[in-house]
Structure formats: C-alpha cells, structure tokens
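note to self — DONT lose this again. spent like an hour looking for the file last time. sequence + predicted structure for the chain T wanted, 502 res
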Amino acid sequence: MSSLEEKNIDYEKNQEISSRESSDGQPEKAHHFIDKIGLRFNAEIRGIERVPEDQRTDKSFFSPLTMFLSPNLAISALSTGALGPTLFHLDFRTCVLCIVFFVIIGALPVGFYSVFGMKFGLRQQILSRYFTGNIMGRVFALFNVISCIGWNAINILPCVQIFSAMGPLPPWAGCLILVIITCFVALFGYKVIHTYEKYSWIPNFIIYLIMIARLTKSGNFTWGHMDQGTAEAGHVLSFIATIFGFVAGWSPSAADYSVYMPSDTSPVMVFMCMVVGLSVPAIFACILGAACAMGTFTSVAWSQAWEDNSVGGLVYAILVVDNLHGFGKFCVVILALSSIANNLPGSYSLALATQAIWSPLAKFPRLGWCLIGNFLSLALSIPAYYVFADTMANFLSIIGYNVSIYLGISLTEHFIYRKGFGGYDVTNFNDRSTTPVGFAGLVGFLFGVASTILSMNQSWYQGVIAKKFGADGGDISFELNIIFAFVGYNIIRPFELKYYKR
C-alpha cells in the first residue's frame, strides 16, 4: 500500500470519529443563519467540505444513471439538435452522424470525472486543484460559475418561447417563474435533486413520442440534401463544437453528483451508468430536434413559427396548431417546465464552484450562493431571449472551449504524472503542498487560449483557422484546444516536479 493511500485511510478514520454524531450527511452545526433555515427544511447545507466515508449512503447505481437522464430529455436538447438544420444548414443524415458520435465522445469525460467524486468525496472544482494546480484550479472554478450561470440563463429561453407562443405572458415573467422554481428545488441539495431527476424525464419522454407521431402525420419532414465542400465541412465542425459543448459541459461539475457514493463502489459501473444515462437521452432528443427542424424547410407555417419564437414556436406549431389543441397546450406547458430539470445541476454546482474560487467565499453558505447565482441567471436570460439561436450556439461553443482546455490538462496530469487514482493525497485539500504549484497548469491554459483565438468561429469573431472553412467559417477549437493544452502543460510540468517536488 502506498503512503498516499495510507494517509487517505487515516484521514477517513479521523473523519468518522469527528462526524459520528451527524446524521443524513449533514455537518453537526450550522454556523450561519441561512444554514439554520436550511436545516429546518432538511436541506443539504454541506459546501465544498470533503464528504466523510460514514456519510456516503448513496449506494444506488440509479443515481449516476438517472442524474442526467431528465436534463437531456429537456427542451434544451431539442433546441441543440434543431440548430443543425436551421443555423448550420445541415441535412438530417449529417446531423444524426454528428449527434451520435459526439454526444458519446462528450459523455466519456463526464463519466470519468464522476468516478473521482465517488473515490475521494471531493467536489469537482476542488479536484481541479489536483489536476491543474492551486491557482488554475480556482480560475477553472470561476469559469465554471460563469458557465453555469450563463447556461441556466440560456436554457430557460426555449421554455419562455413556448409561453410566448401560447399567449400574452411577457418574457420576463416566464423567466422569473422558471428561475424561482429551479432555485427552490436546488436549495434542497443532493438528495432532492437526484430524486427529481430520477422521475421528471417520464412526462417529457411521453410528449416526445407524441411529437414523433405528429411529425410523421404532418408529412413535413424531409431528409435534405447532403452537400460537399469546404463550407459544408465548416458547418459540420461548428455543429460538432455545439454538440460537444452541450454534453461535455457537465464535466467541470461531474464529481459533485457522486460524492455521497461509498468509495468502494465499482468505478466501472459508475462510469458506465453516467455515460449511458447522459448519452442515450441526449442522442434521442437532439435527433428529434433536428427532425422537427427539417420540417421548417417544407412548411411555411413551421418556418414562420421558428422565425417568431425559435424552437418554442416550432414545438407549439407541432403540438397545438391544427393538431391537439387543448391537450397540445397541456403538453407544451409540461415540456416548458423541463428546463427545471436541466438547470438543477448547474444551480447546485455554481454554488460549490463559487466556494472553491477563494477561501473567504467558502464561508458563505452554499444555499446563499445558490440564490445569488440563480438570480444572476434571471438578469442575463431576459436580454438573451431576443437573440436565442446565435446566443445558444455561441455559448455552447464557449463552454466547449473551456472544457477542452480542462480536459487537455487534467487527463495529462492524471494518466502521465499521477499514474492513476493512487497518486493523489486528498487528506487536506486546503494544504497546497498536496497540489501542483500551478505553473504548468497556467501555461497549458494559455496554450489553450491561443488555440481558441486561432480556431474559434463565433458570430462576433472568426479565428484565422476558422476562416479557412468558407464564408461561414468552421469551429475546430475544441479538438485543437486539447492538443495545445496537452503540449503546453507537458513543456512545464517536468520542471515543476523537478524543482518544486509537487
């Protein structure tokens, strides 16, 4: 047994002794009035503290299997798939190929990082300090906060579009309703979120089956024409970046949802459950979104619905207009509420990531940061409502930029320098001597930023490499970012280990 493993076992024993009087995974005392209120309602008040072994009571493989089942059957997945035909001008066959392959590729790192939460009982953005060094670990925590707040803002927009298509409800009111409900559920923490995600996919799946029936009966679906050439390649690359960002965007939060699982749980099962539970619903919903969007090329009414209210208007046209009427309206309202399932993980993780940025921020309760983060999402969602398609595609790509740099650095550290899970000393995550200095992480990050500038393709900026793919460009950044970050990290890391011994 290695000395690091012995340290971790001793730490677990000490934690068991000090926490024996606690129950249900809660710390013994609430030192802040917000936590005291949370305890009255049996909410989780634990923040970024390591979860002791005796409090890891979640032994069900349904937890990793269903954690992202409901989020990826939400209307946001439908919206992401619909961008293929409408924004990137791709035919249906090309969309399906992109979706299947890159949803699975994007799900793999999420499954991998979820194993760390089970192994060590640490939140993802605390683990980042071991991957990238203390300084960059905190920087990546900041980026994750921004990503969670931004994604929560954008994700509710298709649902608000549905409300707008139904009647006179103003966009700000729809945003407010969805943010309040999401925030309320997220405040309760780990157990309630897992329970909600375990069941809330069922009505969404039923409604999607109804949409398939209505789409088939309408006769509006078309396969489209598969083009060739540089411009087509650029559109494919940009759509791939969007798909990858949608799925792999959960990577910087993955460990947060397995920290209450015992450390002796099968890591292979946790990995497989997370990957299957994430990729299968995402593939299904994204393909359905692409299929519905293909109908905008043959139906004037569906095309106008898309122009007026984007994917929300399209869903309304499929289910309500000249179709299911009152029952259709009931279906679209239920589907509109699906944004809650998709925003819950981000609402939970943004609070934990905020605490990981700077030690004084960890003194403010998770519940308080959850409230603040959700209302920042509300402030961003209202102006983003009016430029939804471009905003969603751009933001998902930006998430992909951050995640790809994170992958290039963290996977290198884990497999090359730590040589697996036995190379971590997690006895005290606030002890900087157990984490890398951070110079290698900083250089790897800067290399990744340089790659992003060269290869990103946004409505507001095109890199010199992106411009090589026709007038519309092509986003090849996430692929290059992983390579650039890997190279930059490996240039410095051997010297860091030689002179700083960590």
